[in-house]
Amino acid sequence: MTRLLVLARGLNVGGRNTVAMAKWRTSLEALGFTGVATYINSGNVLLDSTDSAATVKKRIDADLAENFAIHDEKVKVLVLTRGQLKKVIENRPTGFGDEPKKYHSDAIFLMGVSTSDAMAVFNPREGVDTIWPGDGVIYSRRLSAERTKSRLSAIMSSPLYTSMTIRSWSTTMKLWDLMND
Fold it and tell me: Which are the contacts of 3, defined by CB distance < 8 A and separation ≥ 6?
């Protein structure tokens, strides 16, 4: 069995594509996944499977369409192994996430888009936003005192935004802890 992290993009946002996490957990268990646990209501699932991450993704995509009538192309699923999430955490920029009172830090996970293509849609505001490329992720930090001046929300107008799912650094770290419990 391999422990996997499922990050769903576009579920339970703005009243659209609503999926109750308890119902989804039951549905995933019915598919034969074990150790299924959800974290907060934004599509974070941990599970154990003997299938590859790619196969798990296909099975979950089919489950969302069949059992929850989710056919929105904006809803996507990313499945990460423990090693992939570990790499995101270990390769973070120096100091990233270490000052949560001063900075809002996010991991922007990429889904089927290259880091270089994704980086091109960002337009960080000097003195407010800082971004760094990673392997399958973009690290984004906003100065908390100036966050209303951040340009992070401008990425939402890009067609590539549908190939990204954002988790706060604190959520990312909590998911890491849960993966290792």
Answer: 35, 46, 47, 48, 81, 82, 179
pLDDT in tens, 49-96: 999 999 999 999 999 988 888 877 778 999 999 999 999 999 999 999
Q: How far apart are CA 136 and CA 118, in angstroms?
A: 10
* Residue 108 in tokens: 């922007």
- Which tokens hold the place of 63? 């489950």
Beta-carbon contacts of 101 under 8 Å, excluding residues fewer than 6 positions away, are 144
Residue 77 tokens read as: 């699923």
Q: Residue type at 84?
A: Q
Does the pTM surpass 0.85? The reply is yes
Q: What stretch of H or E contains 89?
A: helix 82-90
Q: Which pair of structure tokens corresponds to residue 152?
A: 């992070």
- Give the whole-angstrom CA distance, residue 41 versus residue 139: 22
Tokens for 34, please give them: 């074990």
Which residue is it, tokens 């505001």? 125
Is-contact 135 96, C-beta < 8 A? no
Tokens 């009538």 belong to residue: 69
Token readout for 35 is 């150790």
Strands (E), 64-155: 76-81, 103-110, 129-133, 137-143
